[in-house]
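[Automated response] Your request has been received and processed.

Submitted sequence:
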Amino acid sequence: MKNSIVKLSVVLFTMLFICVNVAAQTDTDSDVKQLFTEAQQQYSDSNYVKTIELCNQILEINDSLVGVEMLLSYVYDDLKKPELELYHLNKAVKLNSHPYIKWRLGELYYKLGNYSEALIFYDNYSNYKYISEKKRLTLACKRASCIFNIQSLKDYSADKDVTNTKDVYWPKPSTDGKRLVFIQQNGNDDENQDSFVSNTDSLDAEIYNQLNKPDFSEDGNIKVPVNKEIVFFTGHNREDGFGDDDIYFSRFVDGKWTTPVNAGSSLNSEKSDSQPFFSDDEKYLYFSSNRSGGEGERDIWRAKLIGFADDGSPKWKSPENISSINGLGNEISPFYYSKTRQLYFASDSYLGMGGYDLYEATVAESGSVGEFINLGYPINTKTDELGLVVNIISDTAFFTSARTKGEGLEIFAFNLTRGLHTQPNFYVHFKAINRNSKLPVQTNIEIVELNNTTAAKELESVNENGELLLCLKANRNYTFNISEQGFMFYSQTVALGKSNSISIPLEFNIELEPIEIGTEVNLYNIFYETNSYAILPGSKSELNRLILFLNNNKGVKLEIQGHTDSSGNPENNMQLSKLRAKSVVDYLVEKGINSSVLKYIGYGDTMPIASNETEEGRRLNRRTTIKITEK
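Generated structure:
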């Protein structure tokens, strides 16, 4: 139906031109009109051969009829023959300078990558008075895109083709950077595809036999493991799928890949979920989907890995839409370089060089997106560019393009100039439970990187089982805090080591203590000047968590206790501990806490919890304690 309406509008438009052109004719007028009416009908019926034949007959009679040239341009547009379409449009514009013809020429030159000519015709069209507001917006975008592309062609040097075979795509470097897996069409059948693996220096490909089996679909991203044991890929229209395309995984066990398994309903939807990329820090799975809740047709989403089930299958948080980069069109082929927080993706939504262009965006751990840019020429061209990935050793990026006429899809490479540097990772696994019931507690964990004033605090949520898997920077000090309504707040500072494996994370089994009368919590991050009750600035975070605890648990009353070690005079210790406890109460009252819910007391060195014979024991005894007196 839609095609018929389009063809009808074409017929009416060309009728306008033919009537204007033949109005002054006499002898040939009737013959031309009859031939043209028949040509229009043949075009409406998609009989292109007969349409061309009739138009040529008309042109033998009169070669100055713009309507005939326009009709032939429509025919060659439908036949995907842009050179012949351009020929007849140029003949038409010489016969009639109608704005619509100029618009068509601008669009066709843009499609062919001749941005200078396209800009000329767009500029000519912009002088037309009767352009709708929507069309003017489109025109502004087109002109800006031409200017962008003309400038881009001046700014970049040529790229390097690394393979010269038909339909080769989805390059994926191995973790050590020494191998490259890619997909190659095998023969003329689009469904017959193989995965190849090659050395990235020679690119002498050999079939990666274990991936080339019916259980695997090669239209998604395959991550090549070196010391990894899992890959993710796209499966199309499978019996166990939830939608048209689903994400599957397979493990490498005893020298071979296990039978692929659907990644589950927490990751896949009833729509198309495809092109997965599992980040190098093994924290997030990025993928493209047209599921509901998106910004456009296909969007980039990510799902956080929160652990593995007993059967080895991954467990995920609900996928989140990276809305800041998703436009009204399609965003596909995500690749996240976790060491620099750069997300590379292809999009047809934004100002670009034509088709899908490659973009780079900075994505923070929280999911917020900084500025994202078009990578420009020669990486992007008038054809589609997609599937960019970065070699783990940070010297080469690979992507797919069909820029070489007649060669199909090819893999290209370019050297990175921004200098990417790897950093070691450290994995921490939390499990939060109720100390009394031993049941999981769904809560948030605040992560604070110490001694880094520029690092933002991160707030991460545990899953329904109270679990959370974190990937953090190695060789750093972190504080983990929990403030959950109905529980005493939790705070723990830890120094992370050099690095560890995702399969052997540092375990934190957190037993959150329900609020009960008599419950006590020791605070070790409230600091005082030596032999003084003056609170140091470094105590602010701990005190603010105490304020949050009181605000979240109205009705709770606290006793603030001061404790010292056994060093010094006992009477002085008693007085010092009392004044330090009072300083805490004064701070809380100053910040808006009602003084009626607080009282203070000093115990000096009379209530040790560790030996005063060691430095560590004395450190533990020097503490501020909160005790629940009412709730």
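Summary generated for your ticket: The first strand starts at residue 160 and ends at 161. Residues 154-166, 194-227, 418-422 have pLDDT under 50 and may be disordered.
If you did not submit this request, please reply to this message.
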